[in-house]
Specification:
Structural class: mainly alpha
Order of helices and strands: HHHHHH
Number of helices: 6
Shape: globular
Largest sheet: none
Length: 154
């Protein structure tokens, strides 16, 4: 009897583990490599500006921000395509450890509505956790208050 009970419990555990594994989104290696480069570029000029804030002349700082804005626009447009194809993913639901939410926080104004709509859809599907959703939407809304806007669930 103990053996049967053990086998049943093991089977239930095994089936649960397999179903959890099958829910993971598998991102192709070439796309992960591209996204790692996008993430590095996301911080490329921000890091330099931040570290050299007091030494940069206004003209140089403005020029660097213009370059960063070009990168942000490219990254956001690319992420929209990727999310539409694979859904929103992170280390919790995929083989990726790339912080997509961090790149989406730098969405240019002209793309904020499209990203907001897409993020809302992905949140409703359960693909974005509340913390990431709150952080992204807080930034998309211009960081209006010193709090993160968690979506209310009824």
């Amino acid at each position: 009897m103990k053996l049967i009970l053990t086998l049943i419990l093991f089977s239930l555990f095994h089936v649960n583990c397999i179903s959890q594994i099958s829910k993971k989104i598998i991102i192709p290696k070439n796309l992960l490599n591209q996204m790692n480069e996008m993430f590095a570029n996301d911080q490329k000029y921000r890091t330099y500006i931040s570290k050299n804030r007091s030494n940069l002349k206004k003209f140089k700082k403005d020029s660097l921000w213009k370059l960063q804005n070009v990168i942000d626009t490219y990254n956001t447009k690319r992420l929209i395509v990727i999310i539409k194809q694979y859904g929103y993913f992170d280390s919790g639901n995929s083989n990726s450890n790339i912080a997509i939410y961090a790149m989406l926080m730098h969405t240019p104004d002209e793309l904020k509505k499209e990203v907001t709509d897409l993020i809302n859809i992905e949140y409703e599907k359960g693909k974005i956790d509340e913390a990431s959703y709150g952080m992204i939407t807080w930034h998309l809304e211009g960081r209006p208050k010193p709090i993160i806007n968690f979506k209310k669930t009824d």
